[in-house]
Amino acid sequence: MKRSYLSVAVLCVILMMNIVFTQLIVHQYFFEHYVTVLIYCGFNILLFPIALLVYQQDRKRKGVHHDEQ
Amino acid sequence: MDKNNKIPFQEDNYTHNIERNGERTLDRRGFMKTLVGAAGLFAVSSLPWGAVAAKELMGLSDKGYPKKKIADVSKVAIGDSVNFSFPGEHDSALLIRLSENKYVAYQNACTHLRCPVFWVKEKGEMICPCHHGKFDAQTGEPTVGPPRRPLPEIKVKVENGTIYAVGVKRYEA
User: Fold this and answer.
1) Taking CB atoms and an 8 Å cutoff, what residues of chain B touch A14?
2) Where are the domains of chain A?
3) Span B91-112, pLDDT tens digits
4) pLDDT digits over B140-155, tens only?
């Protein structure tokens, strides 16, 4: 089976961005920049469907049968 | 049915696996699933931050009190102080007229042991008599003595020659 590690790398980057955004949320909340908190919060929530999409695309490209999942 | 005739038959699952080589390890796909799960966890965990930030933005945490008359401007000379209570009957407070148009008001229970802080006009300081704590009249910050936290400030408004207390500033300490 041919393996592609592109989507693994993309997911790792997404996780890194999650960590960075969460840190920024906490810091901006402390500095009382509440609008900025909401923006980063939106980014963080948006990253989840993107990650899910990357995972599903990867599975589709492999053409995995359902009993193999 | 055919696969069941082999002994042991090929069975890829967690619970009935009897072959060590058939054990599942963290493979590439499993790792990706974990990453997606982590992204979901981050998304969920940032929700409460967004909620409290939105709450702050909508001003739900600012408590409103009905405005209360403190004194007439004509009766308070520059450098004088007036005792009043705000917002409740037992929350004693102190208004100081620092200059022609500058009024400051603080809840005057000392932040050390809640003795009433009073204004000394000659020295230009607020003093707590119990342990000689002193507070800066401009900001309410403690300057000398045991108190470490500032006095809670009361918002003051002057309308038609009358001084009103309109609210309590959010306490940050």
Assistant:
1) 35, 39
2) 20-59
3) 899 999 988 888 899 998 999 8
4) 899 988 999 999 998 8
Does domain B68-168 correspond to CATH entry 2.102.10.10? Answer: yes
Give the pLDDT of residue B1.
57
Those residues whose C-beta lies under 8 Å from the C-beta of residue A24, and which sit 6 or more positions away, are A36, A40
Residue to test with chain B: of A15, A26, A65, most B Cβ within 10 A: A15
Q: Count residue pairs from A and B with Cβ separation < 8 A.
A: 86
Q: Do B47 and A41 touch (CB under 8 A)?
A: yes
What ipTM was estimated for this complex?
Answer: 0.85
- Most A CBs within 10 Å, among B11, B13, B14, B32, to test the A interface: B32
Q: Model-level pTM?
A: 0.57
